Amino acid sequence: MGKLWNRTPGADGKAQLNEVDLKAVAIDSPTIVYLSGFLTNNNQPGYVAGGIKKMEEMLGSRPEIEVQPKLFAWSHTSLKNLFNLAAYNMFPSTRSSDAGYDLGASLLMPLVAEGFTRDAKNNVSGTPLPADTARKNLRNITLFGYSAGSIVAQETFNATLKMMKQIGYDEKEARKVLKEVVLVSVGTISRPSKETDRSSTVYLVASNDRINRAKNWIWGTLGTSLRALFKIGADKHKKPLTIRPLSDSSVFITTAVRPTLYEWQYDDKGEKARKKWFAGLYPKWSGRRSYHELPHYLTTDDKNNGFAKVVLYSLINAVNRDAEVKPMDLIQPPARDTHAEEAQAAYRERIEQAMRPAPAAFQQPKRKYW
Asked: What is the pTM of this model?
């Protein structure tokens, strides 16, 4: 099974990685759970620690955050997880792997049910909490899914919904309650068009992300053709930011990202501090770019790509929420944003100009299993 981790200061003052007992997790304050990419497996503690560290560096002790969140990261059992990804994309309405059930039972079910238990044979029991109490509890949890983690997040929803129904929740009420969960999904390889009635979700997908293009080609979504999958056009890095609400609880954001593997980081005064390089997903000898690397999505460098600050603001607003929040509200500058008014105005204008209606692919009638 996969594992949950956190980082805490060691006796020497240095951060150390700790495996967390899923049965002992208590979500009683703002918490972010980072669901990692497919290369972050149980035997790669460095990747796990690096994922948490990225979250710490981005959120840090920012004054906009009212209560600093607890940070956890999920690692996958092994590369066999790739089979689970394919299975989910075949049956997105119902499919969940063991990871989805483990996370749902440990993180979400205790927030919506009193005395919840799950035995070795996956039998569950518990008493549904009053809806207002369950909704309030779920406002403490934010899922951040990257790449394969975007599918684990959806599997967690499917598994939790099933378990809620098993202990007595009406499906309509369960879905309404689960909208309190916020999911920020980047480098998404799940199927957003089949996930429009779930958690409050912000999807970010680079238009030239080759991993996502491959997924779209396999499943025939968003009109991706074989030609588009391998396209090497001169304009592939120039597609502007577009924002398309898919439903009341989900929004899809896309733009092209650059082939360069660096971003500028800024000091407290907004001045360039240093150029930070990051590793590419494809090996150097391939001579190709994947455009799927996590830093493309996390950047706060306004000149890097159109995603700049979207994830940062979404996570801050998610952590600060004390009521149900809509995806379009998540991507707005936080109430206590410390950036200069000019920078805030430029960001708001970028968001406003990017607004588009939902694409035709997301307006098709819903089908139950495909």
From this structure: 0.90
